[in-house]
């Protein structure tokens, strides 16, 4: 696995998904394109609507590492919506660590060290 070259930019691909499971095939098709397989892009999904009963294998994308922060009704106060997912391309990063997640009623954050 190659180390990310110094000075290489990371290209976030933000998307408000309104259910990652429902739209997963579309995301998988987009990330499998040759242009995205070879770049340092990070599909960042808001409104993933994932919960603990949806496994990583159900939303896994080949050649990407998944980081997720699922909807937590008791923390966010929401019974629908919310949740974050990040997919980091394994071709340009060989060391990734989830640093933190934070869920509040009007704010969700996730920090990943690459």
Description:
This protein is of the alpha+beta class and 114 residues long. The protein has one domain (11-113): Deoxyribonuclease I, Chain A. The chain is 18% helix and 32% strand. The chain is built from three helices and six strands. It has a four-stranded mixed sheet with strand order 1-2-4-3, with no helix packed on it. Strands 5-6 form a two-stranded antiparallel ribbon. The chain starts with 10 loop residues before the first strand and ends with a strand.
CATH superfamily: Endonuclease/exonuclease/phosphatase
Using the CA coordinates, give the radius of gyration.
14 Å
Overall shape: globular
Mean of residue pLDDT values: 76
How would you briefly describe this protein structure?
This protein has 114 residues and is of the alpha+beta class.
Kindly list the characteristics that best describe this protein.
114 residues; alpha+beta; Deoxyribonuclease I, Chain A; two-stranded antiparallel ribbon; 6 strands; globular; disordered N terminus
